[in-house]
Design brief:
This protein has about 325 residues and is mostly beta strands. The protein has one domain. Helix content is about 5%, strand content about 50%. It has a 17-stranded antiparallel β-sheet that branches. β18 and β19 form a beta hairpin. It is globular.
Length: about 325
């Protein structure tokens, strides 16, 4: 029997209508490295006094689940699936013929997450695992001087074996790099994006859903998954050309951040983009650093806060592309 090696791993995904009820895949995600979503189980040791020095005499099966990461580059179409799972909600608005805005925003009450069915294929005929009720626990995005990377950490039910590999293909999407990024700061999101972009040397953020796996009697697999506190954090680095960012930290001056990644023209007068909007952030840390023969930089670590005067959310994402249907 041959062994599939190299670039043959594939990860398919479909967003579930009812949590835990498997659906067919609708997209083949363009991975930047293999999806590391794997089987996990927790043996329960049977430790008894037996007159011998062996502590563990036996073990039985305990909790079972799936856990791992789905890594990909941020693009104008496919990243929307992970963003929707990380935030939970979507409003799709037609802007013009062939131009749609997909607004992803978090669930601010309740703790039932949006779930997906993942098909993790390492070899089409020997290893296709179907993972039901998969939930994005964290979604991380970052860039420096290369491509924009994003990674979803996933929790789900124990994988089911024997599924057939789906037949959907990768949807075309523009891949973003640091050259496509504009980072805006301002008193409000509108003021930020209406001003001039601030050049940064590094930017990253993480959406955390704080997912908990729920177990009950008579079932070793995860019964359900629930989200707890929602939190968005991030970091950015700028050259220390002025004291503006340092003084924000010193005075706890709260500002909005808009991180926008612009792609190709999809219709006359319209370009595709992915726009991350932080209504108000506080700087938790502000470090000024340099090497022996290097330049001073300011590194700020922030946490997103709610600003009800703007939107009811601390954070949302707008993806403009030519996808007419919801994710």
């Amino acid at each position: 029997m041959g062994i599939d090696i190299g670039r043959l791993g594939r990860c398919y995904l479909g967003i579930e209508v009812s949590p835990g009820t498997a659906v067919a895949a609708t997209v083949l995600l363009p991975l930047s490295s293999p999806a590391k979503v794997q089987d996990k189980h927790e043996p329960i040791p049977v430790d008894t006094g037996s007159g011998r020095r062996y502590v563990t005499q036996d073990s039985v099966m305990g909790k079972r689940w799936s856990e791992g990461e789905v890594p990909m580059y941020l693009d104008s179409v496919n990243a929307g699936y992970l963003l929707k799972l990380a935030l939970g909600n979507e409003v799709n608005t037609s802007i013009a013929a062939g131009v749609n805005d997909h607004n992803f925003y978090p669930t601010v009450s309740g703790n039932t997450p949006l779930t997906a069915t993942i098909y993790n294929c390492r070899a089409a005929t020997t290893d296709v695992e179907r993972i039901d009720s998969a939930v994005v626990n964290t979604f991380a995005l970052s860039f420096e001087d290369g491509l924009v990377e994003c990674t979803a950490s996933v929790l789900g039910r124990f994988p089911q074996l024997g599924a057939a590999e789906p037949t959907v293909v990768v949807a075309s999407g523009t891949t973003f790099s640091f050259r496509d990024a504009q980072i805006y700061f301002g008193a409000t999101m509108a003021a930020a994006e209406g001003g001039s972009a601030t050049p940064v040397t590094q930017f990253s953020c993480e959406v955390a859903q704080d997912v908990e796996m729920i177990y009950r009697s008579n079932e070793g697999d995860v019964l359900t998954l629930r989200t707890k506190g929602f939190k968005v954090t991030g970091k950015y680095t700028v050259f220390f050309d002025s004291v503006t960012e340092r003084d924000k930290y010193r005075e706890l001056t709260k500002k909005a951040i808009v991180a926008k990644f612009t792609g190709i023209t999809i219709a006359t007068g319209y370009q595709e983009f992915t726009k991350l909007r932080f209504a108000k952030v506080r700087l938790d840390e502000g470090e000024i650093d340099t090497g022996l023969d290097d330049f001073f930089v300011f590194a700020g670590s922030f946490t997103a806060e709610v600003d009800n005067a703007q939107v009811p959310n601390a954070f949302d994402v707008v993806v403009r592309n030519n996808k007419s249907s919801v994710y």
